[in-house]
Structure formats: structure tokens, C-alpha cells
Amino acid sequence: MKIVMATSECAPFIKSGGLADVVGSLPQAFVEMGHDCTVVLPLYADLKCREDLEYVTSYDIYLGWRKKHCGVFTCEKNGVRFYFIDNEEYFKRPGLYGYDDDNLRYAYFDFAVLELISHLQLEVNILHMHDWQTAMIAPLYREKYSMHPYYANIKLVFTIHNIAYQGKAAPSLVQSVFGLSESLYTSGNLRNDDCFNMMKGAILYSDIITTVSPTYAQEILTNEYGEGLQHILELRKGDLYGILNGIDYVTNNPTTDPALVENFDLATIESKYVNKVALQKEVGLVEDKDIPLIGIVTRLTWQKGVSLILEQIHTLMERDVQVVLLGAGDFELEQQFNQIDWMYPGKLSLNMKYDFGLSCRIYGGCDMFLMPSLFEPCGLSQMMSMRYGTIPIVRETGGLKDSVTPYNEFEKTGTGFSFTNYNSYDMMHVIDYALEMYDDKDQWNSIIENAMTTNLDWNESAKTYISIFENI
Ligand code: ADP
Is the pTM of this model over 0.70? Predict the structure, then answer.
């Protein structure tokens, strides 16, 4: 099959979260299965591997009355072809998102992807879109491109990585930017809660909708998790699939990870504790290989259950335990952490930044990994932790529920610890139970073994995607 993916981020080029990890590894899994996969993304100012890019072509894009330049660059990595869409007005800025004109920037990108297909004469069986930034490709394809013979017979797949971000915009953009009839708004196709809603467009206009875990696929049909789109998803329930993400086994590998002080596997697990002590030194904690060390690596946003951590941090600090947090994001949450930063020297280390190397050393050097998310479409951090023998403590939601099996001390089964209700006392209770298990080395080694031998790679999930693609 010829698969083209449109995405706003992709590792190793540019990353803000799990979407980049997914689009960084799923195409390679498709290629290894004998399929052809091309990925298209914007050429941001912060893009890495720039030196590998070659110029291909350029053409114009029309966004309503605006005529915009579109340059195309390319490179190939591990059998996957990448195209980068270059427009300095829209993408030559620091970071990825959060600009006032994001709607316009990604509208431009959506047109650029569709135009690329005919300009480069790409043969496409599946056009795979990810999240709101590329959602409007589906309505644009059906309304503007599909009648052109060159574009006929392309099947559209839309993957929801996070339904909380939907691409909500002023109704006038439907016509003035996307050049679509106003009736698509008034009829409700692109309208939700009296607002233009791009994700709704993708849900209605795609052949298949997928999301990143089976539990999240169920959750987003409910009022609690559907973020206002549950009724629309209910209409498309027959075409909605939940496929659990995997992690990249090459980059997330404790036996080869260059960020670690000493590489290790299950047979050389003692080396994990060399990493632990080095991490304690790096982040200013008391160096002690026996004290339980809890890690947190997260975007700092309300979704990640950060408020539960803040609620219980003082209680947690009464225990014989250390905590290292690596997080960047909401200014207010960063401020709240900054206020407690001075209180527990040697015991609590707060690192308010984005740091890939440190994230690897936290996965490698900690004993436990805390991820009490309010909702979690899939979550990759808990899987990375498990691969490095760091035991996840999670809330049972979305992909956390699907990837972490609660430990059973009697049967010695399970890969982590979990709690159901979004409640900080329940979280604290489970942390206490994990600490009790940690004190029993026999139990703890069983959990580590279970976690490190769990299969978390992409193989099964990639096969599921392909069988769904084949069906349509
Ligand atoms: P989300 O996509 O919602 O942010 P995931 O768990 O799916 O959550 O993926 C998060 C990814 O981003 C992981 O690879 C994690 O290691 C990384 N990450 C998150 N915050 C940071 C940070 N402050 N520094 C380095 N890496 C981070």
C-alpha cells in the first residue's frame, strides 16, 4: 500500500509530545512490513536534521484571497520518505504551536499537503491525518479535490491523539480561508457548539477514525471524555478503532541508550542503580541507591493529573522517598511548583524545562514513574519507563489502563500500580502500596522482570492499522 501521513510533528525532526513519537516510528513499521510510507510535515525554524534536506520544488497555495509560497524539501530515513513544507511567514518561528494565527498556519499546511500529491505525482492509497492540525484535509479532499481524476480513490484515515484539542475557530474561516461553502457550517458538518470545529469535519468526512488505545476509543463516546464530540463519534462508532501505540525499540532501549551512564538489561539490572545514583547527583538529590526514587516526566497541563501531585506533595515528602520531576508547559503550574522548590532540598528535584537526555536518565534511573492523568489517550512515558525497569504508578484511564497491569503480589503478575478515581488520596494510597512492595526485594524484582519483558513495540499495532487500511 502507498500511505501518506500528514502531521504537525514527527521525531526526530521536531517534537512537543507523543504524536511526534508515534509518527516517528509507525511509518517505519509499515515500511518493514513491505508498504510504502511518506510523511509530510512543516519546515519549522527549530527543525533538526536540516543538513539532510534537499530542495524538491515550489508552488503557490491559495487561502481565500491570500496567495502563499510553498517550498518543498525532502529527505529519506530508514526507508521512509519525508517532505517538508516551507513557508517562512508561517513556520519560521520558535517552537510549534500557541500562535494567534495557528488556524491559518495549519489551513495553509493542509492545502500544501493536498497540492503536493499532484505536484509530485504521488500515488496514494491511504491519506492518514493526525489531530486537529491536519483534520481539515478530510473536508477539503471531499469537497474540492476528490472529483479530480488524479485524486480519485484515496481513502482517508483520521487518528485522534487527543480530543481535547479540536481546532475551534471563527465560522467565517470556513469560507474566507478554506474556500468552502458557508452551508457546510450552517448545516452542522463543520459546526459544533456554534463554533467552526475542524476535528468534527475530520470525524464526519474520513473513511475511518482511529484513536490511540482501545479504552480511549470507548471513553470518547461518553460525556465525561468526549469533549463535546461524543455524539458525533457515536454516529461513526462503526468506523472507530482504538489501537494502542507502541514505542520505538531502537531509541528507547536501555541496552544501547547513549544518555545513560551505564547501559543495562534484565540480566545486568544492578547497573540500573549506577544510573540511579548518577541521576540523584545530576538533579541535586541525596545520593543513595536504596531510597525509592519516583520520576515524573510530563507536559505540565491539567490533563496530566498534576493537581493531584501538588495536592499530595507534602504528604509524599513525609515518606522516605525522593521525587524528580521534569516538566514544562502551563505557566501557572510551573509557578505552583516553583513555590515549593526550596522546601525539600535533597529530596525533591523540580526541573521546569524540556530536556530529552534528562528524560531518558529519569526513565533509566528511577524506581517508579508517576503518571496520574485525568485522561490519557495512550501515553508513552509509562511504556518507556517499563522498558527501563521503572515501575509505573498510573490512573486507570485510556492507554494507561491498557498498557499497565496492576501488580498482584500473590500471583506475582502485573507490571505496575494503578488507581481508578481521580482522587489524590487514592493516588497516595497506591503510592504507599508501591513503596511497601519496593521494600520487599523479591516482590520488587518480580515487578521489574514483568515490566521489562512486556512487549511494547509497534509490531502488533502496525499490523492492526494495515488490516484496517486493507479493509477500506
Ligand atoms: P503527551 O503526548 O500527551 O505529551 P505521551 O506520554 O504520549 O504524552 O508522550 C510524551 C512524550 O514527550 C514522551 O516521549 C516524554 O518523554 C516526552 N516529554 C514530555 N515532557 C518532557 C520534558 N519536559 N522533557 C523531555 N521530554 C518530555
Answer: yes
